Amino acid sequence: MLSNGLRVVVTGAGRGTGRTLALAFAERGAHVVVSARDPAAAGRTADLIGRSGAGTAEAHGCDLADPASVRGFAAALADRNDRIDVLVNNGAGYLPGVGLDDASDEEIVETVAGTATGTVLLTRHLLPLLRASDRPDVVNLVSACGEVGHHRSEAHPAYYAAKHAQAGFAGILSHRLRAEGIRVISLYPPDFVQDGPREPGAPLTARSVVECVLFAVGQPRDCFIREFHFEQVRSPGP
Fold this sequence. Notes:
Elements: E1 7-10, H1 16-27, E2 31-36, H2 39-52, E3 56-61, H3 67-80, E4 86-89, H4 105-131, E5 137-141, H5 157-177, E6 183-188, H6 206-217, E7 227-229
Parallel strand pairs: 1-2, 1-4, 2-3, 4-5, 5-6, 6-7
Helix pairs in contact: 1-2, 1-6, 3-4, 4-5
C-alpha cells in the first residue's frame, strides 16, 4: 500500500500519461517532482496538483535528450531533497513512420537520445537519492515496441531501437540493484489511448497502465515485480 509522504519523480509529466501518473501519486499523498521538456507544461501539472489539496508538487524543466539539462535537473533535486522514493522514467517522444526515411536525422537522434540515453543518465544521477530511501523503486514505461518480435505498432524503427535499448537497460539494472533492495519495474504496454471504455475488446487506457504502476510500487518490499506485459489486439495483417 502506498503511504503519504512519498517523494516521486515523474518525467514527461507535462501532459498525457505522465500527467495522469503525477496526479495519481499526488492523490495518494505523495510529493511529486513534475518534470517535462516544456517548463510551462510541468508547471500546469504542478498547479493541478496544488489545487487538488492532496499531495504536493514542484515543477522542473528537463530535456532528456540534452545531457546538460539532465545533470542540471538532478543537481536541483539533490539541493532540495534528501531522498527519492520512486523514479518514473516516463518521458519519451513518440516517433511515427514505418519507413526509415519517414523521419529526419535530427528526429532520429532526439528520439534515441531522449528515450534511451536520457533514461540511463537520469537514473544514474538520481541513484544516490534513491539509495537514501528505505523503499526505492525505479519504474520504466517502456512500450511493447521494446519486446522481442513485436511488430504491430506504426512507430518509426528508431523508436523501436530506443525502446529496445531502454528495455535492455532496465533488465540489467533490475538484476544488479536487487541486492540493494532497489526494485526496477518495467511496463510494456501496446499503443494505448488516454481515455476510453475500460471493457473487454476496447483499447488499453492510460488509467489502466497507471494503476499497474501504483499496484507494483505499493507492494511489500519482499515482492519484486519485474515486468508487466499486456495482451494485445492483433491487427488483421500478417
